[in-house]
Each structure stands twice: as structure tokens, then as C-alpha cells.
Amino acid sequence: MTVQVLVNGKPGHEISVFDRGLQYGDGLFETLKIVQGRALFWDRHMDRLERGCERLGLSSLPRNALWQEAEPLVQNLARGVLKLIVTRGEGERGYQPPQQAQGTRIWVVQAAPAYPPTNAQEGVRIRFCETRLGHNPRLAGIKHLNRLEQVLARAEWDDPEIAEGLMLDGQDNVIEGVMSNLFVVSRGHLLTPDLSQCGVAGVIREWVLETVAKLGMVCRECPVSQAMVNTAEELFLTNSLMGIWPVRQLEAHPLAVGPVTRRLQKALEEVYG
Ligand SMILES: Cc1ncc(COP(=O)(O)O)c(C=O)c1O
Question: Going by C-beta distance under 8 Å and a sequence separation of 6 or more, which residues neighbour residue 272?
Fold first, then answer.
């Protein structure tokens, strides 16, 4: 499919070289899954974008105005990816945010990634990354444009058999995957890493946290050690495009795809329709 791009509401691929998104990563993004013209979990993505705008002091259009712009791009699309990038816009030289910045808004519509269906069905092989996530509570949770830690981590392997890498912080806590959030079943308890210091608070992670409560289960957000991950009964990864992928092997350690993972996958399939 042809890639479609809108910059500030107009078709085109150009933005200013002085845009602060390019100069400093001064902005946010969201990546949404499109199924039959619908943007799945739209409101959760917009909630995270608004939280990010508040933290960074950015302005963005209200969500209904954003959808008015995006809908014509995706309404006839059976499957695809809709990405929104919001930056502070053009600035003078220097880090200081301009008083009267006109934000930049970029929509990109692309084909859905061709993940093998076995990733969700049978699980994936994953590894640990060397690159660590730095602590910064002011940036933790939001999906800002500074993604160099993920870029370095993803450059650590090119074996196509390895679907994802796990990232730790400087204190050896396991935080998340390079592009996904992590859930762990350890000694019968469902856990997910605490993201108060670093990591992206994923939309599917948030959905899992709410759904387990509805299913009468409990999921604790807490520090997760490498030992907990290495001895887990189940591991699974979440992200908007992947959905839920069970882990069938971490480094050399094989894992079975367990009942908690399967139950949540089934619940998510119902949402996806
Ligand atoms: C670093 C990182 N963590 C987690 C996620 C999962 O977020 P979501 O469930 O909102 O797709 C992503 C998604 O791209 C990510 O890049």
C-alpha cells in the first residue's frame, strides 16, 4: 500500500529543519492499529497523548478534531498502522521552549507489520539487552520522541528468530521490551514492572491491568528482577500492533504458553472483533 502522510492537515512529506521534534525530540507519538477503518483503543491512545502533552507543556488539537483529520485516511483501510506525531513545532536556536509555539502534527498511514501468526499462537523467542533504561520520573510512562535507548537496544541483534529484547534499568530491574510491555506469572502471581521511573505505559498494558480485574484476577505493578523473569511460569509481551505475544523461550530457557496468557489473548481477540 502507498504510505499516506498529512502535515498540519495537508498532504505532504515536509517539515521545517527547525522543528523541535527533529532538533530535540521535543514531542510525542502514538501508534495505532487500524482494523476495518477503526482505530483500536483510540481513547486510550488519546488519554496517553493528553497526559504527555500536559507533562511536556505541549498543545494539541482536541481528540475529536484529530479524529476528523485521521478518519478519511483510514476509513477504507481493512488493516494498517496509523501513527500520530505531535511536536512543539518550530523554534529559535536553543532548548528554551518558545512562548508562542505553533505545534506540528504529522499523520502517517502505513501497512500493518507482517508479523508471523505463530508469534501470537506459539510464542516468541526473546533475549536480554545490554542497553539500560535511564531513570527519569518526569518522562516515565509517556510516549515521547526520545527513543535512542530503544534504537541502541534494537541494534544489539539481527537474528530474525529473536522477536524482542528485554530492557533493564541501572538497578537491574526488568522494565519492558524494546517495543513492548512485559507481564510475568511468578509463583502463581501475575506481575508487571513498575514504570514510575522509566518505560512506556502501554495502551495494551493498561487494558490488561483493567481486564484482569474484570476477570477476577489480580495483577501487581512492582519491581521485577531478572531472577523472577528467569524462573517465571509464564511471560507475555503486549503492544498495540502485536496484541499479546506469549514468550516460548528467553535466552536458552524454554517456557510453556500458560493459561493466564491464553485467557487474556482470548479477551483481547474479542475486543479486536
Ligand atoms: C518502548 C515501548 N514500550 C511499550 C510499548 C507498548 O505500548 P502500546 O501498548 O501503547 O503499543 C511500546 C509501543 O510501541 C514501546 O515502544
Answer: 35, 40, 243
Q: Which residue has the higher pLDDT, 2 or 37?
A: 37
- Residue 47 reports pLDDT greater than 80: yes
**How far is it, in rounded angstroms, from Cα 63 to Cα 207?**
20
In this predicted model, what pLDDT tens digit does every residue of 153-195 receive, in sequence order? 999 999 999 999 999 999 999 999 999 999 999 999 999 999 9
* CB neighbour burial string for 89-110, b if at least 16 within 10 angstroms, e if fewer: bbbeeeeeeeeebebbbbbbbb
Q: Are 161 and 125 in contact (CB under 8 A)?
A: yes
Cα 270 to Cα 263: distance, rounded to the nearest angstrom: 11
C-alpha dihedral over 157, 167, 105, 33, to 10 degrees? Answer: 80
Element (H, E) at 93: none
CA dihedral sign of residues 220, 225, 231, 232: positive
Among 3-7, 59-63, 218-222, the minimum mean pLDDT is found in: 59-63
Kindly tell me if the per-residue pLDDT of 243 is higher than 80.
yes
Three-state DSSP state, 140: coil
- Residues lining ligand 1, CB < 6 A? 31, 150, 176, 179-181, 200, 202-205, 238-240
The residue whose CB lies within 8 Å of the most ligand 1 atoms, and thus the one to mutate among 164, 239, 271, is: 239
pLDDT at 204 over 90: yes
Q: Which residue, by CA, sits nearest to atom 16 of ligand 1?
A: 179
Model confidence at 26, in pLDDT bands (50, 70, 90)? Answer: very high
Q: Under DSSP, is residue 151 helix (H, G, I), strand (E, B) or coil?
A: helix
Cα separation values, 270 from 199, 202, 211, 220, 267, Å = 27, 19, 12, 24, 5
